[in-house]
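Q: I'm building a small set of examples for a reading group on sequence design. Run inverse folding on the following structure and report the sequence directly after it, with nothing in between.
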């Protein structure tokens, strides 16, 4: 489970069972404190913060940007 749904569940568990404490939630369940804090803010305000998953992970790197052009149109000697 990812995104807003996970944050909401984590925040609700923190609120219901751990007096809304992100530190206790981190210690007891091993969840990220920042995620729980954000989830608690979302519960309080009703505004959902979308995640930026597209910016994570390994980026495609072009090592030789002109290589495709060189392959498609080789110079004749």
């Amino acid at each position: 489970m990812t995104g807003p749904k996970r944050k909401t569940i984590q925040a609700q568990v923190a609120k219901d069972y751990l007096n809304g404490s992100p530190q206790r939630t981190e210690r007891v369940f091993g969840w990220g404190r920042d995620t729980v804090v954000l989830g608690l803010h979302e519960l309080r305000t009703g505004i959902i913060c979308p995640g930026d998953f597209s910016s994570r992970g390994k980026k495609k790197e072009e090592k030789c940007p002109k290589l495709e052009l060189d392959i498609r149109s080789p110079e004749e000697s």
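Residues 1-52 form one domain.
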